[in-house]
């Protein structure tokens, strides 16, 4: 693997304003990766918390959300969000329509993660993808010791009613990026509390102790 | 013989009916022969007039104007007593102090559409060239023609850019046409229960309505004013059929079910045994008292011809490419005239054009007419959309948005 993990000048301990404390760690991390004035599409934007954070930083944010309740809450907040499905509706967006396309905690719920990922980098010049790491030690422990499909605070659904049909580990994701020739600009693993893990740790350490991975991706030959 | 009850006859004197069409109880802007309206059919219409109502106050910068586009059988009386029916304005759920279209913060304009019968020039107006009612001599008009006429009114009022253009159904069509024709004049657009084109099914329903009007012998080839008749039965049937399409199976079931009207048992006749029959007959007969039959023909035709993509080589995205207008589209789950899929097509085109758009589908069993009714989620989203646009536009934001 040729990818290098890179550091971010980012600290949760010293937020720039008091309101920052109310934002999720992975959202703050994503927001740090995007310059002001950029045009961004958030795929699977949920209740629009990330989009609100981005708009507050002068970023032109748009969203797609599958659930009608989520969409209506977003539109109710004045966000530019439309109802849509990452698996079927990304094809309707033209090439290079956005500077960044974000897929936050949604990859594992898509039917075709590889196709979705390819679409993200067709629509956007860069993509930011975050997902729960199924290689996280507690997941492994639950399967090893309990012998049952893991359930955590962040992923509480049982195997039979979970929307998450394509779980992967950080290592799996890195391999997928290599397979489809995507350049990884930055990679960060977050612990259970949304804090970045130590930067100089080896991949196996991230894959074991990272509760989620956040990746900034770019097309090769951009 | 079995008891039969056709639609009741109504007695409205022709001169009363043409009164509101020519000398409306509204503000009127008149455009002379030096300012013709170039129609899509190739005719220059002049002179003509546009009747309109306003609510609220235009601010010093002229940046707080909202244009409401009314639907097929609506009119400009959005938030005041209707001079013909005596009923309250048709959009009290949306317009008023503290409402989404806040009359305390915005200057709200609604004009009667070109081709209408409430004071803007249409088939019920006097043709100055002949001194007679236009009737079928009136040229066929289109949605873009209506919008061109509105733009001339907005020019007259000295407003360069509208803060928002808003409308449902045919009003939504006009709203979308505004953004396609005058993107720089529309800061935000709220288009509800509509589409950029009329579907085959909708054209079919309209044709049914038109044929009902024209099949009435009292229509007299459109010259009923001169002949002292009125095709109230034909127009009533047209309205009854259309009204069914504005509701939904679930709404009809909830409101009426199979309940009987003032009776326990069927009368074994063609009387209105069922409540739903009685309701429809009432809708039909009350409509003909306030609406001109020829106007109904012209306005339904305008909707049928509407197809924004056709004016852009079939590519809808081209109609909206890179417009700066902030869009909000909404559809209703039980609307079978403009189903969600059609709104979604418009959203895809807007996205492809790089346009800022919000789109929400509202769950309700109230059908197409939901945009006229008290549907809290719809009204809340409209309010939030307008407030967020107002904040960006430097206008005061309502209490809910603060």
Descriptive labels:
heterodimer, A: 222 residues, alpha/beta, Rossmann fold, seven-stranded mixed beta sheet, 7 strands, 30% helix, B: 402 residues, 15% strand, globular
Summary of the model, kept short:
The complex is a heterodimer of chains A (222) and B (402). Chain A is α/β, with parallel strands linked by helices and 222 residues long.
Characterization of this structure:
The complex is a heterodimer of chains A (222) and B (402). With 222 residues, chain A is of the alpha/beta class. Chain A has one domain: Rossmann fold, CATH 3.40.50. Helices cover 30% and strands 22% of the residues of chain A. Chain A contains eight helices and seven strands. A seven-stranded mixed β-sheet of chain A has the order 3-2-1-4-5-7-6, with helices on both faces. Chain A is globular. Chain B is an alpha/beta fold and 402 residues long. Chain B is 35% helix and 15% strand. In chain B, the strands form four sheets. An eight-stranded mixed β-sheet of chain B has the order 1-4-8-5-11-12-13-14, sandwiched between helices. Chain B has a two-stranded antiparallel sheet with strand order 2-3. The radius of gyration of chain B is 21 Å and the shape is globular. The N and C termini of chain B lie far apart (68 Å). The chains are: A alpha/beta (222), B alpha/beta (402). Chain A binds chain B through residues 60, 62, 68, 71-72, 74-83, 89, 92-94, 97, and chain B through 326, 328, 344, 347-348, 351-352, 354, 356-363, 377, 380-381, 384-385, 387-389, 391, 401.
Q: What would you call the structural class of chain A?
A: alpha/beta
| Helix run count of chain A | 8
What would you report as the Rg of chain A, rounded to the nearest angstrom?
A: 17 Å
How large is the radius of gyration of chain B?
21 Å
Q: Strands across the major sheet of chain A, in which order?
A: 3-2-1-4-5-7-6
